[in-house]
Amino acid sequence: MIPYVREIEFTYGACDQVSPLIRRVVANNPGPFTFKGTGTYIVGQGEVAVIDPGPDDPAHLAALLAAVAGERVTHILITHHHSDHSPLAGPLKAATGATIYGCAVAGHEEEDTGEVKMEAGHDHDFRPDVSLCGGGEVSGPGWTMEAIPTPGHTSNHLCYALRQENACFTGDHIMGWSTTVITPPDGDMTDYIDSLQKIRAHEFTTLWPTHGPPILQVTPFIDAYLTHRQERIDQILLALADGPARIRDLTPKLYRDVDERLWPAAARSMLAAIIHLERGGDIEAGGPPGPDTVYRLS
Questions:
Q1: 199-249 residue pLDDT tens
Q2: What's the rounded Cα separation, in Å, for the pair 25 and 15?
Q3: Can you give the C-alpha Rg of the chain in angstroms?
Q4: What is the pLDDT of residues 181-196, one digit of tens each?
Q5: pTM of the model
Q6: d(Cα 172, Cα 158) in Å, to the nearest integer?
Q7: Is 273:293 a contact under the CB 8 Å cutoff?
Q8: Which residues contact 152 (CB under 8 A, 6 or more apart)?
Protein backbone atom coordinates (compact mmCIF):
# COMPACT_ATOMS: atom_id res chain seq x y z
CA MET A 1 0.00 0.00 0.00
CA ILE A 2 1.32 3.43 -0.97
CA PRO A 3 1.89 5.66 2.13
CA TYR A 4 0.35 8.77 0.58
CA VAL A 5 1.15 12.20 2.05
CA ARG A 6 -1.59 14.74 1.38
CA GLU A 7 -1.47 17.25 4.24
CA ILE A 8 -0.21 20.64 3.09
CA GLU A 9 -0.66 24.10 4.60
CA PHE A 10 -0.43 27.17 2.38
CA THR A 11 -2.28 30.24 1.14
CA TYR A 12 -2.71 30.76 -2.60
CA GLY A 13 -0.31 33.39 -3.85
CA ALA A 14 1.75 33.50 -0.65
CA CYS A 15 5.47 32.73 -0.71
CA ASP A 16 6.47 30.21 1.95
CA GLN A 17 10.03 29.33 2.95
CA VAL A 18 9.87 25.52 3.02
CA SER A 19 13.60 24.76 3.46
CA PRO A 20 16.79 26.81 3.81
CA LEU A 21 17.14 27.18 0.02
CA ILE A 22 13.58 26.61 -1.20
CA ARG A 23 10.49 28.82 -1.31
CA ARG A 24 7.09 27.76 -2.70
CA VAL A 25 4.17 29.66 -4.23
CA VAL A 26 1.03 27.62 -5.02
CA ALA A 27 -1.11 28.58 -8.01
CA ASN A 28 -4.88 28.70 -7.55
CA ASN A 29 -5.57 25.89 -10.04
CA PRO A 30 -6.78 22.96 -7.92
CA GLY A 31 -8.29 20.01 -9.76
CA PRO A 32 -8.26 16.25 -10.37
CA PHE A 33 -4.79 16.39 -11.95
CA THR A 34 -3.25 19.22 -9.91
CA PHE A 35 -4.43 18.34 -6.35
CA LYS A 36 -4.39 21.68 -4.47
CA GLY A 37 -2.63 23.47 -7.35
CA THR A 38 0.75 23.87 -9.04
CA GLY A 39 3.51 24.40 -6.50
CA THR A 40 6.13 26.65 -8.08
CA TYR A 41 9.50 26.50 -6.36
CA ILE A 42 12.04 29.30 -6.04
CA VAL A 43 15.59 28.13 -5.28
CA GLY A 44 18.34 30.31 -3.89
CA GLN A 45 18.58 33.94 -2.82
CA GLY A 46 19.59 36.99 -4.82
CA GLU A 47 20.03 35.09 -8.09
CA VAL A 48 17.37 32.40 -8.18
CA ALA A 49 15.89 29.57 -10.22
CA VAL A 50 12.15 29.08 -10.65
CA ILE A 51 10.90 25.50 -11.17
CA ASP A 52 7.60 24.83 -12.99
CA PRO A 53 6.11 28.35 -13.09
CA GLY A 54 2.75 26.76 -13.87
CA PRO A 55 -0.33 27.73 -15.90
CA ASP A 56 -0.59 31.00 -17.81
CA ASP A 57 -2.31 32.79 -14.95
CA PRO A 58 -1.69 36.55 -14.47
CA ALA A 59 -2.43 36.30 -10.74
CA HIS A 60 0.19 33.58 -10.28
CA LEU A 61 2.71 35.54 -12.35
CA ALA A 62 2.12 38.57 -10.12
CA ALA A 63 2.60 36.41 -7.01
CA LEU A 64 5.88 35.01 -8.35
CA LEU A 65 7.20 38.45 -9.26
CA ALA A 66 6.29 39.73 -5.80
CA ALA A 67 8.10 36.76 -4.24
CA VAL A 68 11.35 37.59 -6.10
CA ALA A 69 11.14 41.38 -5.79
CA GLY A 70 14.66 42.78 -5.50
CA GLU A 71 16.17 39.52 -6.80
CA ARG A 72 17.19 38.31 -10.24
CA VAL A 73 15.58 35.24 -11.80
CA THR A 74 18.35 33.62 -13.85
CA HIS A 75 16.91 30.18 -14.58
CA ILE A 76 13.41 28.88 -15.34
CA LEU A 77 13.43 25.08 -15.05
CA ILE A 78 10.61 23.02 -16.55
CA THR A 79 9.94 19.38 -15.62
CA HIS A 80 7.64 18.72 -18.62
CA HIS A 81 5.28 20.34 -21.07
CA HIS A 82 1.85 19.83 -19.49
CA SER A 83 -0.35 22.91 -19.24
CA ASP A 84 -0.20 23.09 -15.45
CA HIS A 85 3.62 23.23 -15.48
CA SER A 86 5.17 25.15 -18.39
CA PRO A 87 2.91 27.83 -19.99
CA LEU A 88 3.87 30.62 -17.56
CA ALA A 89 7.55 30.21 -18.51
CA GLY A 90 7.17 32.62 -21.45
CA PRO A 91 5.52 35.46 -19.50
CA LEU A 92 7.97 34.96 -16.62
CA LYS A 93 10.90 35.16 -19.04
CA ALA A 94 9.44 38.33 -20.58
CA ALA A 95 9.19 39.91 -17.14
CA THR A 96 12.62 38.84 -15.83
CA GLY A 97 14.89 38.06 -18.78
CA ALA A 98 15.60 34.57 -17.39
CA THR A 99 16.64 31.64 -19.56
CA ILE A 100 14.23 28.70 -19.92
CA TYR A 101 15.67 25.21 -19.45
CA GLY A 102 13.98 21.88 -20.12
CA CYS A 103 13.39 19.26 -22.78
CA ALA A 104 11.15 19.79 -25.80
CA VAL A 105 8.78 16.91 -26.56
CA ALA A 106 9.38 15.09 -29.83
CA GLY A 107 6.32 15.11 -32.07
CA HIS A 108 2.85 16.43 -31.32
CA GLU A 109 0.41 14.52 -29.16
CA GLU A 110 -3.32 14.67 -29.61
CA GLU A 111 -5.29 16.34 -26.84
CA ASP A 112 -7.08 14.07 -24.40
CA THR A 113 -10.67 13.94 -25.63
CA GLY A 114 -11.76 10.72 -23.91
CA GLU A 115 -14.76 10.35 -21.64
CA VAL A 116 -12.45 10.57 -18.64
CA LYS A 117 -9.56 12.98 -19.15
CA MET A 118 -6.18 11.66 -18.07
CA GLU A 119 -4.24 14.93 -17.94
CA ALA A 120 -4.65 18.68 -17.62
CA GLY A 121 -3.60 19.17 -21.27
CA HIS A 122 -0.45 19.81 -23.27
CA ASP A 123 1.57 22.98 -23.76
CA HIS A 124 2.30 22.39 -27.44
CA ASP A 125 4.23 25.68 -27.71
CA PHE A 126 6.82 24.79 -25.07
CA ARG A 127 10.37 25.16 -26.39
CA PRO A 128 13.24 25.68 -23.92
CA ASP A 129 16.06 28.09 -24.67
CA VAL A 130 18.54 25.48 -23.43
CA SER A 131 17.89 21.76 -23.85
CA LEU A 132 18.56 19.41 -20.94
CA CYS A 133 17.15 16.29 -22.63
CA GLY A 134 20.46 14.51 -22.03
CA GLY A 135 20.84 15.84 -18.49
CA GLY A 136 23.12 18.61 -17.34
CA GLU A 137 23.93 20.96 -14.50
CA VAL A 138 22.79 24.50 -13.74
CA SER A 139 23.90 26.66 -10.85
CA GLY A 140 23.70 30.01 -9.11
CA PRO A 141 25.15 31.55 -5.93
CA GLY A 142 24.91 28.86 -3.24
CA TRP A 143 22.91 26.33 -5.27
CA THR A 144 23.60 23.66 -7.89
CA MET A 145 21.02 21.51 -9.64
CA GLU A 146 21.36 18.45 -11.85
CA ALA A 147 18.75 17.71 -14.50
CA ILE A 148 17.88 14.00 -14.43
CA PRO A 149 16.02 12.63 -17.49
CA THR A 150 13.01 10.68 -16.15
CA PRO A 151 10.82 9.70 -19.12
CA GLY A 152 7.63 7.78 -18.41
CA HIS A 153 4.87 10.18 -17.41
CA THR A 154 5.91 12.03 -20.57
CA SER A 155 8.79 11.38 -22.94
CA ASN A 156 10.44 14.69 -22.01
CA HIS A 157 10.08 14.62 -18.22
CA LEU A 158 13.01 15.87 -16.14
CA CYS A 159 13.61 15.86 -12.39
CA TYR A 160 16.00 18.37 -10.80
CA ALA A 161 18.33 17.41 -7.94
CA LEU A 162 19.39 20.17 -5.53
CA ARG A 163 22.86 19.14 -4.41
CA GLN A 164 23.07 21.33 -1.30
CA GLU A 165 19.99 19.73 0.32
CA ASN A 166 20.14 16.23 -1.22
CA ALA A 167 16.64 16.97 -2.49
CA CYS A 168 14.90 16.38 -5.80
CA PHE A 169 12.11 18.26 -7.56
CA THR A 170 10.10 15.46 -9.11
CA GLY A 171 7.41 17.22 -11.14
CA ASP A 172 4.73 14.60 -11.85
CA HIS A 173 7.16 11.67 -11.84
CA ILE A 174 6.62 10.96 -8.13
CA MET A 175 3.75 12.60 -6.23
CA GLY A 176 2.80 12.14 -2.61
CA TRP A 177 -0.94 12.53 -3.10
CA SER A 178 -1.52 10.15 -6.04
CA THR A 179 -0.04 7.67 -8.46
CA THR A 180 1.27 9.04 -11.75
CA VAL A 181 -0.67 8.80 -15.00
CA ILE A 182 1.07 6.91 -17.82
CA THR A 183 -0.78 7.44 -21.11
CA PRO A 184 0.63 6.06 -24.40
CA PRO A 185 1.97 6.97 -26.83
CA ASP A 186 3.95 9.77 -25.12
CA GLY A 187 3.74 8.02 -21.74
CA ASP A 188 5.70 4.78 -21.46
CA MET A 189 5.50 2.25 -18.63
CA THR A 190 8.90 0.65 -19.29
CA ASP A 191 10.59 4.05 -19.20
CA TYR A 192 8.59 5.02 -16.12
CA ILE A 193 9.68 1.99 -14.08
CA ASP A 194 13.31 2.52 -15.14
CA SER A 195 13.08 6.19 -14.15
CA LEU A 196 11.64 5.34 -10.72
CA GLN A 197 14.59 3.07 -10.08
CA LYS A 198 16.97 5.79 -11.26
CA ILE A 199 15.60 8.28 -8.71
CA ARG A 200 15.57 5.61 -5.99
CA ALA A 201 19.29 4.94 -6.56
CA HIS A 202 20.16 8.56 -5.73
CA GLU A 203 18.96 8.10 -2.12
CA PHE A 204 17.56 11.61 -1.83
CA THR A 205 16.52 12.89 1.59
CA THR A 206 13.48 14.80 0.30
CA LEU A 207 11.33 14.80 -2.83
CA TRP A 208 9.46 17.98 -3.80
CA PRO A 209 6.62 17.17 -6.25
CA THR A 210 5.03 20.01 -8.21
CA HIS A 211 1.67 19.08 -6.65
CA GLY A 212 1.28 18.44 -2.94
CA PRO A 213 3.60 18.24 0.06
CA PRO A 214 7.18 16.93 0.18
CA ILE A 215 7.92 13.22 0.49
CA LEU A 216 10.28 12.64 3.42
CA GLN A 217 10.37 8.83 3.58
CA VAL A 218 11.79 8.59 0.09
CA THR A 219 12.95 4.98 -0.36
CA PRO A 220 9.87 3.32 1.21
CA PHE A 221 7.63 5.58 -0.85
CA ILE A 222 9.34 4.75 -4.16
CA ASP A 223 9.34 1.06 -3.23
CA ALA A 224 5.59 1.26 -2.69
CA TYR A 225 5.16 3.04 -6.03
CA LEU A 226 7.09 0.25 -7.77
CA THR A 227 5.13 -2.46 -5.95
CA HIS A 228 1.83 -0.90 -6.99
CA ARG A 229 2.85 -0.90 -10.66
CA GLN A 230 3.99 -4.52 -10.46
CA GLU A 231 0.73 -5.57 -8.82
CA ARG A 232 -1.24 -4.05 -11.70
CA ILE A 233 1.01 -5.81 -14.21
CA ASP A 234 0.61 -9.13 -12.39
CA GLN A 235 -3.19 -8.72 -12.46
CA ILE A 236 -3.08 -8.57 -16.25
CA LEU A 237 -0.92 -11.68 -16.51
CA LEU A 238 -3.20 -13.56 -14.12
CA ALA A 239 -6.28 -12.57 -16.13
CA LEU A 240 -4.68 -13.64 -19.41
CA ALA A 241 -3.85 -17.01 -17.87
CA ASP A 242 -7.59 -17.71 -18.22
CA GLY A 243 -7.32 -17.20 -21.97
CA PRO A 244 -6.85 -14.51 -24.65
CA ALA A 245 -8.71 -11.26 -24.04
CA ARG A 246 -9.05 -7.64 -25.12
CA ILE A 247 -8.56 -4.58 -22.92
CA ARG A 248 -12.28 -3.86 -23.10
CA ASP A 249 -12.87 -7.37 -21.72
CA LEU A 250 -10.26 -7.07 -18.98
CA THR A 251 -11.24 -3.64 -17.69
CA PRO A 252 -14.58 -4.64 -16.07
CA LYS A 253 -12.92 -7.75 -14.64
CA LEU A 254 -9.89 -6.05 -13.08
CA TYR A 255 -11.66 -2.83 -12.07
CA ARG A 256 -15.01 -4.24 -10.94
CA ASP A 257 -14.73 -2.29 -7.67
CA VAL A 258 -14.03 1.00 -9.46
CA ASP A 259 -16.70 3.46 -10.63
CA GLU A 260 -17.57 2.58 -14.24
CA ARG A 261 -17.07 6.22 -15.23
CA LEU A 262 -13.36 5.70 -14.55
CA TRP A 263 -13.04 2.58 -16.68
CA PRO A 264 -11.89 4.49 -19.81
CA ALA A 265 -9.00 5.93 -17.78
CA ALA A 266 -8.24 2.50 -16.33
CA ALA A 267 -8.21 1.03 -19.84
CA ARG A 268 -5.61 3.53 -21.00
CA SER A 269 -3.43 2.82 -17.98
CA MET A 270 -3.79 -0.89 -18.75
CA LEU A 271 -2.68 -0.22 -22.33
CA ALA A 272 0.60 1.23 -21.00
CA ALA A 273 1.16 -1.92 -18.91
CA ILE A 274 0.29 -4.21 -21.84
CA ILE A 275 2.76 -2.44 -24.15
CA HIS A 276 5.36 -2.94 -21.42
CA LEU A 277 4.53 -6.67 -21.17
CA GLU A 278 4.57 -7.18 -24.93
CA ARG A 279 7.94 -5.44 -25.18
CA GLY A 280 9.29 -7.81 -22.52
CA GLY A 281 8.00 -10.88 -24.33
CA ASP A 282 5.47 -11.84 -21.64
CA ILE A 283 2.44 -11.49 -23.87
CA GLU A 284 1.64 -11.47 -27.59
CA ALA A 285 -0.68 -9.06 -29.38
CA GLY A 286 -2.90 -9.93 -32.31
CA GLY A 287 -2.33 -6.51 -33.85
CA PRO A 288 -1.30 -2.95 -33.00
CA PRO A 289 -1.85 -2.19 -29.29
CA GLY A 290 -5.37 -0.94 -28.65
CA PRO A 291 -8.65 -1.68 -26.82
CA ASP A 292 -9.87 -4.21 -29.43
CA THR A 293 -6.60 -6.06 -29.93
CA VAL A 294 -6.57 -9.62 -28.60
CA TYR A 295 -3.75 -10.35 -26.14
CA ARG A 296 -2.52 -13.73 -24.96
CA LEU A 297 0.32 -15.06 -22.83
CA SER A 298 3.46 -15.89 -24.78
A1: 999 999 999 999 999 999 999 999 999 999 999 999 999 999 999 999 999
A2: 5
A3: 20
A4: 898 999 999 999 999 9
A5: 0.93
A6: 9
A7: no
A8: 173, 180, 182, 187, 188, 189, 191, 192, 193, 194, 195, 196
